[in-house]
Amino acid sequence: MSKRSNTLMPVSASDNPNFAYFGIAVGIINIMIPIDEHDILTSVDLSFNMDGLPISKSSKICFWPILVSIDNYSTLKNHPFVAAIYCGQEKPKLDLYLSKFTLELKQLMEEGLLIKNVDVKVNVRAFICDTPARTMLKQTKGHGGYFCCERCTTRGEYHEFNKTTSYPEINANKRTHTAFMMQTDSDHHVGKSPLEQLSIDFIKDFVLDYMHAILLGSMKRLLNLWFTKIPYKVSSQTKTSVSKDLLVFRQLTPREFRRRPRSLDELERWKAVEMRTFLLYVGALAIKGQVKDDYFKHFLLLFYAIRILCSPKLSALDSFIDYAEKLLHKFIGMYPKIYKRSAVVYNIHLLQHIPDDVRRYGQLDGISAFKYENKLKSIKDKIRSGNLPLTQISNRLAEAAQHVPVSGCNRDSTGEKATKAISQKLNVSNCVIDPQVEKDSYLILKDGQFGFLIKVNENFLEVGIYTDFESAFDYPCQSSLIEFWKIDKSKWKKMKVHKSDCVAKCFSLVKKNDFYLISMI
C-alpha cells in the first residue's frame, strides 16, 4: 500500500446498511490538516474504544461506534474521532465489525501516513473498553466464566446459593501474549479474534479501564453493600447522616467538577464521575464514624491505592505503585473475611492487576474511558429522530469532516475588563485557583506547603500558608502521603512566592467543624 496522502478524504459508508465505515486515516488526516507542517507529529499513538450505545430507552437499537484517539498529542488526546459505526438490535458480528478496521490499521502500522509531506508512523497504544467489549474483541470467556480473567489463570468458584462466580485467589500465574495466541488455556477462549492479524499484545494492550472496573464496579458495589444490602446495610438514620455530609461537600466542590456530590437517595443514578469524586475525595470523610470500623479501614485501603494510581506525581514512582499494589492485595484478601467469599466478583479480582497497567501507561486517568463516554454522548445528541439513525449520524459526521477549524485566539467582547478578571486568577494543571471564591482558592506549593491564594500579581503570588496541621488519617499510613490533611484554619502566615511555585489546587472539606484539604488530581 502506498502511503495515504494529505488529502481531506470524504466520509464513506459501507455496503452493509447496518454498518458505516469512515476510516482511521481519514480521521487522523482531518485532525492534522489544520496543524502547521512544523508541528505535525512524526508518529501517532492511537487508542481505541468500542462500546454499545442505546439510542433511546424505548428501542432495542444500539450504536456500536469504533472510536479513536491520538494520545501522544496533548491537545487532541481527549477528542476521539469516529472510525466506524454499527447500528442494530444485537451485538455486531465480529467479522463484519472489525474487517475493514483491522485491514486498514494493519496497513497503517506497516506503511504509515504522509501528511503535508511529513512521514507519520502509526502505532497502537491501547484498546480501552469495558469488560464485555474486551471479551467480545478478544473472543474470550465473559465475566462469570471459570477461566475468564484476562491477566491470570485463576479458576473461579461458583456459588449455587446466589448464582455467582467469585475469584478470591491472589497471585495466580500471569497470562502471556504467546500463550494467548497459542490458546494453551482452551477454557479461556471462545474463538479466534480478527484482531490477531495485528502486531499487538493481547494481554498488555487491552487495559482494564478503571472507570468501569473500579468506579462503576468495585466502588459502586461497596456503596450498595453499605446502604442497600442486608446484612451489611447501615441504619436509615446513618444513611441520612452520610447524605447530609455529602450535601455539605456539594457546596464546597471546586468548579472543575462537572458533577457535585448527591444524596444517597439518588445512589442508583450516580454517574461514574460521582463515584470518582466519592472514592478519591469525599468518601473517606463521609463514612468515617458512620459505618463499621472494619468496613471503613477496608475502604481506606482502596482509597489510598487508587489515589496513588491516579496521581500523576505518585504513579510515576515505582515504589508508590508497588505500595498501591500491596494495598490492593490486602483489600482483596480482606474482602471475603468482611463480606463473603462469594462477594469477590470479577471487578474486585481485577484490582490486583490494575497496577500493571499503571506501570506500562502511567496514571489511571490517562487510560480511562471517560473521554470516549463523552464522545458517545455527543454522537447520541446528533440523532434528531428515530428514523434511519445510522444515516443521520453518517451525514452529521460527513458535514463535520468538511469543516476545517480555524485556530486563533478567542477575543472577549468585554476587552480590558476580561483581561483584568483573568489576571486575578491562577491557572495551574488545568485548574483555576480564584482568590475571590473560597472553595476555589486552596493550593499546594512545590515545597509541600499548602494554603490559600490571597492575591495574584504579575509574577508573584500572595498566599496564606497553614502552619498547624496533621494527617487526616493514620491508617494504612499517614494520609499526608496522599496529600490529605486536617488543618487548624486559624493558624497561617502570609508569604510571597513565585507563580511557578504553585503546583496544584486543593479540595476543601468540612466535617463537624473540622477543616480538611486534599490535593486535586
Note the gap between the termini: 44 Å
Helix segment tally: 14
- How much helicity do the residues have? 25-40%
Strand content: 15-25%
Rg, rounded, reads 25 Å
What's the β-strand tally? 20
Overall mean pLDDT score? 91
Q: Helix/strand/pairing class, anyone?
A: alpha+beta
Shape, per Cα inertia axes: globular
Low-confidence stretches: 5-13, 404-422
- Biggest pleated-sheet summary: 8 strands, mixed
Tell me what you see in this structure.
The chain is of the alpha+beta class. It contains 14 helices and 20 strands. Strands 1, 2, 3, 4, 5, 6, 7 and 10 form an eight-stranded mixed beta sheet that branches. An eight-stranded antiparallel beta sheet has the order 16-17-20-19-13-14-15-18. The protein starts with 18 loop residues before the first strand and ends with a strand.
Structure summary:
34% of the residues lie in helices and 21% in strands.
Question: Secondary structure elements and their pairing?
Answer:
Blueprint: E1 19-21, H1 24-32, E2 43-50, E3 53-54, E4 62-70, E5 81-88, H2 94-111, E6 113-115, E7 118-129, H3 131-138, E8 157-159, E9 164-166, H4 177-182, E10 206-208, H5 210-227, H6 236-252, H7 272-287, H8 293-310, H9 318-338, H10 346-350, H11 354-361, H12 370-381, H13 389-401, H14 416-423, E11 426-428, E12 431-433, E13 442-445, E14 450-456, E15 460-466, E16 469-471, E17 484-487, E18 492-498, E19 502-511, E20 514-519
Helix pairs in contact: 5-7, 6-7, 7-8, 8-9, 9-11
Q: Which features would summarize this protein structure in a list?
A:
521 residues, alpha+beta, eight-stranded mixed β-sheet, 14 helices, globular
